[in-house]
Structures are given as structure tokens and as C-alpha cells.
User: Which sequence fits this backbone?
């Protein structure tokens, strides 16, 4: 598969890029096109001609598939696109989040809020404790603060039940 991204530019920049691609490059004043990112990989500069525009790399709220065709009837999937480079005018504000709120089409407006579940709020201490207990169990031990009280017949898998309780609950 190919590596692809979506380049979203202001209308004035889009006209200049279209002119650059359609006209003879020797007659255009916008002969150069460049995109460079800073060390953080999320912010950068888009250069067309002698003009510099701020750019940001944003994650899309959902994956977009891209296709190409050779005969105008059969489509071949070329890539899954999950990021977009957004070029802004010089005075526009910098996005404070790394994920773009909206999709690429009007039905996907505010897609993250309307179409996807909220991520659960988990207590980090509880997650660490459960992870440690699972690693102990997988290594053949038992979970912390647990005591085995008893079990039914060892050979009968349908009735076999392991009764545990937390020592802290005694």
C-alpha cells in the first residue's frame, strides 16, 4: 500500500497550487513547493513560492479509504488515511488538540462527539493493580490479597468452581 495524507489548504493557497500544477512551471512565479516539520512532528511550515504558511499534522476522527482506477470502472484500494496536514493563513489560531474534531464531509461534522463512545475514566492505580495481579496469575501465582477457600471435585470441569475472596474484606 502507498502512504498518503490529506492536505487541507486555504482557498487562496489552493488556487496557487492549482495554477502551479496546471501551468508551465517556467511561467509561474510559484515555482517551489515545500513542506517541513519541526522536531515534534506535529507542527511545521508550508512554503509556496516565497510565502510561508503555518501547518499542523492532525489525526482524523476515523480512517478514510482512498482508491484509484485505471479503467474508470474497477476501483483498487490504495491506502487507509488517518491524518491530515492542515495549512492555515498566517493570522489563524493554532489548533490546541492533536485530533481534528470533524471528518472530511458535512455528515461527519463533530464526528468524535456524535458517533463514538466516550473513553472510560479509569483509576490509574486500579489499572496498575489489576495488571500486576494478571501477570502474577499468568506466572502461576495468585493475585495479591486473595485467599483460596476451596473448590469442588478436581476432575469435574463443569462443576469446578474456585472461590476466592479478598483478605481485606474479612
Assistant:
Amino acid at each position: 500500500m502507498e502512504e498518503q495524507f490529506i492536505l487541507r489548504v486555504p482557498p487562496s493557497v489552493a488556487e496557487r497550487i492549482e495554477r502551479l500544477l496546471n501551468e508551465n512551471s517556467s511561467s509561474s512565479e510559484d515555482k517551489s513547493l515545500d513542506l517541513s516539520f519541526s522536531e515534534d512532528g506535529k507542527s511545521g511550515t508550508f512554503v509556496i513560492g516565497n510565502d510561508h504558511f503555518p501547518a499542523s499534522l492532525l489525526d482524523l476522527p476515523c480512517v478514510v479509504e482512498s482508491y484509484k482506477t485505471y479503467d474508470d470502472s474497477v476501483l483498487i484500494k490504495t491506502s487507509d488515511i488517518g491524518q491530515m496536514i492542515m495549512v492555515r493563513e498566517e493570522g489563524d489560531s493554532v489548533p490546541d488538540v492533536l485530533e481534528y474534531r470533524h471528518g472530511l464531509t458535512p455528515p461527519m461534522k463533530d464526528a468524535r462527539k456524535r458517533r463514538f463512545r466516550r473513553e472510560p475514566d479509569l483509576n490509574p492505580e486500579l489499572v496498575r493493580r489489576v495488571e500486576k495481579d494478571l501477570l502474577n496469575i499468568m506466572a502461576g501465582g495468585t493475585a495479591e490479597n486473595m485467599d483460596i477457600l476451596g473448590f469442588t471435585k478436581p476432575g469435574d470441569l463443569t462443576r469446578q468452581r474456585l472461590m476466592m475472596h479478598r483478605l481485606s474484606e474479612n
